[in-house]
Write a structure and sequence with these properties.
The chain is α+β, with helices and mostly antiparallel strands. The chain is 60% helix and 14% strand. It is globular.
Length: 174
């Protein structure tokens, strides 16, 4: 694995860069301008991103947008980001893919782990304070795309979600 890029992503500036990229790309999918983020700390960026995605998702739902199509667009965007990161990071196996995902999700205050191969759990999710179950299902297209792009295979399917009242999220990569 490319340790240089891993160290960059592990830094506070790497976390800010990651959130800014997510914010710009997600805004593009929603067809709106990204909020201004100059001078924001990582925690301010994360809060802005969480509120932005929650608001734009609700706007899409309220306006009658095709949510299946929007979910697919979010997936495609995230798949591109994940597969690009895979090319840059060059993981050798699934353990290195998991290390990359764990870092990416740690940067956005989501604690993820794998208990069994392909079975992932989220014990803490920053976004659960902002998202309704419907928003979470829509935005999960990003998670599905990132996982598929980094692992180069599979479909992430959520079984349980914190936003639906469970104490953790549970997802399987098949």
């Amino acid at each position: 694995m490319n340790r240089f890029i891993y160290r960059i992503l592990s830094s506070p500036s790497g976390a800010r860069m990651q959130i800014r990229i997510l914010l710009r790309q997600t805004a593009r999918i929603f067809g709106v301008d990204a909020p201004r983020t100059a001078g924001m700390s990582a925690s301010e960026l994360l809060r802005t991103y969480a509120q932005f995605t929650a608001d734009e998702s609700r706007n899409a739902m309220d306006s009658g947008q095709d949510l299946v199509q929007l979910h697919q667009k979010l997936y495609n965007m995230a798949y591109h980001l994940g597969s690009s990161l895979r090319r840059w990071m060059r993981p050798h196996d699934d353990q290195e893919c998991l290390a990359i995902l764990t870092l990416l999700y740690k940067n956005i205050e989501i604690l993820i782990n794998e208990r069994d191969p392909g079975e992932f759990y989220v014990r803490k999710c920053y976004f659960s304070a902002f998202y309704t179950p419907e928003v979470c299902r829509l935005i999960s297209g990003i998670d599905q795309g990132i996982f598929a792009g980094i692992y180069q295979h599979g479909r992430l399917t959520f079984e349980d979600r914190i936003t639906e009242g469970y104490n953790q999220c549970r997802a399987c990569l098949k």
